[in-house]
Amino acid sequence: MSKSLFFRSNLQERARDWNWHNVIGFWLATPLLIISLTGVIMAYPWANDLLYRLTGNPPPPHQTENAARDARSDAGQHHGRRNNVAAAVPDIESLLGMANQRLPGWRTLTLRLTPEAKELVLQVDRGDGGRPDLRTQITLDPANSLPPRVESFSSYNRGRQLRMWARFKHTGEAGGLAGETIALIASLGAATLMVTGFSLTIRRLRSWLSRKSA
Q: How far apart are CA 103 and CA 96, in angstroms?
């Protein structure tokens, strides 16, 4: 067992590839599993929906059709919407004052315009960008003069919370610099597993062909 836990320098060719494949697979199994599972959730709608259902929450509606419809409407309304957006954007100083009042100690502000510029979404981040639990979303409706709608991480259902964590677990950002370093090492390890796996397969194929011809 110890031969599969540590790298050995006195090996050649097939034995070396076998050693590297086992050692890397053993030590990086957990981060590779996390990266793989979160990647599946991000890439496939059925996996995303399954995450919500497992937590007892209804999956959110898919945005593909809505995005296509918005894109078609943008083609005929781009000029008018640009003017509406310019008129709807509030004063930056007022946004800063709102953030300071509601969430003192924030580090990053991101302003996003929703389709047709009906609402303005202000994302306030009190962390370094990799912690969704430190983010708060403030939605403004300048046209109707409604009070701001504040949504913190704790206000979301369990399914959405896990979905938000999945994105930052996948890249390692949830763990800060250490998490990103582990994600980088795991990515390099996955590439090495692929190379050593192919090498072992080719060597075994050559050995089998040699025995067959003999």
A: 10
Which residue from 66, 67, 48 is spatially nearest to 58, judged by alpha carbons?
48
For tokens 């296509």, the residue is 68
Per-residue model confidence as pLDDT tens digits over 98-118: 788 888 888 998 887 766 557
Sequence length of the chain is 214
The domain locations on the chain are 11-57+158-214
Extract the tokens encoding 56.
Answer: 């007892």
Tell me the CA distances in angstroms from 146 to 54, 149, 156, one per residue in order.
35, 9, 21
pLDDT tens across 137-173, in order?
A: 988 876 667 788 889 999 999 999 999 999 999 999 9
Residues ≥6 apart with Cβ < 8 Å to 185: 28, 31
In the numeric block, the tokens 């209804």 are attached to 58
**H/E stretch holding 108:** strand 108-113
Q: How many angstroms separate the CA atoms of 52 and 93, rounded?
A: 38
C-alpha pair distances (Å), 63 with each of 67, 71, 79, 82: 6, 12, 24, 23
Tell me: pLDDT of 13 over 90.
no
Query: For 50-102, how does the pLDDT look when each residue is reduced to its tens digit (9 = 90+)?
Result: 999 999 999 998 765 455 445 454 444 444 444 454 455 566 677 778 788 88
